[in-house]
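Q: I'm writing a short methods note and want an example of a predicted protein-small molecule complex. Could you take the sequence and the SMILES for zinc ion and return the bound structure as tokens? Please keep the output block clean; save any remarks for afterwards.
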Amino acid sequence: MLKLWNTESRTREAFGPISDDEVRMYSCGPTVYNRAHIGNLRGYIIWDVLRRLLISDGYSVIHAMNITDVGHLTDDGDEGEDKMVKASREQGKTAWDIAKEYEELFKKDAKDLNIVLPEPPLLCRATEHIKEQIKLIQTLEDKGYTYITSDGVYFDTSKYPEYGKLSGQPLDEKLAGARVEASSEKKNGTDFALWKFSYPNGRPFDSAQDDSATRRQMEWESPWGFGFPGWHAECSAMAKKYLGQPFDIHTGGVDHIPVHHENEIAQSVCAYSVPLANFWIHNEFITVDGQKMSKSLGNFYSLDDCREHGIDPLALRYFYLGAHYRQKLNFTWESAQAAQNALNKLRSTAREWDAPSDISLEYDDHFMAEIMDDINTASALGVLWDMVNDTELDSSVKSATLKRWDGILGLGLTESIAKPLEIPENVTAIADRRWEARSNKDWDVADALRMELENLGWLMEDGDNNYKLKPKK
Ligand SMILES: [Zn+2]
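A: Understood, no commentary inside the block.
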């Protein structure tokens, strides 16, 4: 049985979906204003393993992921500039072109990492769901959870006593900790924008008042005036549209817990009076050479940087699977190289094995017990190596077992595993005749047929209840 650490309950819980055979899962996706760095990619790899694991456990998985192409401000809150607009200015392209370019790069990175992304419409862009976000905000307004300032429509967190539950910080503590900027008209420091105005009080662009250079590239009309949605609204609106509410699993990075996910929960629960998701799971950060990733240190490595260092994307995937997703992980070029070496060894070893026969139930039970225990990929890889190094185990069994596990780990090993044997029909027919002769203790005929098979390049191995054919080497 799959067990998952639920951030909300702070316990390891047995997983069961809302409907019997279907799991509905939402992952917070990328903000497409720059190239994903290796730290961003860790979560997507883990959620891909979770998706594969659920499928191998017999569920069909409906997986939705957003593409944030508007509304994510540089400070992650309500201050600063829209990340898309900033990138547009810095790179001299339109915000729309920036979004398109980095969304494509994200999809390419995902493909190179063997991550199966949802297909549209389940891979959903914020800019294509403005109507749904407006509807969410209107519902909140009708229920009295919002207020309007000169720069937008805000959610009043003091009206939702459960605010702070996900991060384990009671509302009064959170309120005390979050300072209200002197310039802000927010009632509480934790309040957040549902809709931001392009220009004061939501009026449209006015060339008599505004320099045309300040005109927003991305803005929409709303019941409150011209503007754009706050970052958090898209996830609540699109998750409800594509998965319903509540759904089963919501994933994201630990950095999402205190603000983005608290805000998603507040909006969704207050609007629709049911929980947003039953399981909240979060992956930890990576550090690079023991330090936080940062622009000033120049350690925002991308997959291209990995390639330049001789690390292929699947070796990065292997590297991430080598640690539990809830542990902080330190990336160094040496540790990435060690992952590359291990993967190379696995590939070349598997290439030498016989074609897949039956899986090893014993090893498979062990492997599944590890990986079903809160996606413990690190221990599962330990079982994998025990099997690889087991000199007693037939290599055709190793091939079959590794092939099954690769369906979950997604390391692209199937190509390295020997192709299934194609045995010509005439060879099978002779082997059947020999098996019958042997059963009848007709040894002369059996020996003659064995010779015949060898002349055709095949060895017949007799078991207790059946035989096996192997090509003569
Ligand atoms: Zn989200």
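A: Remarks, as requested: The pocket of zinc ion is lined by residues 28, 235, 260, 264 (CB under 6 Å). The first helix runs from residue 38 to 56.
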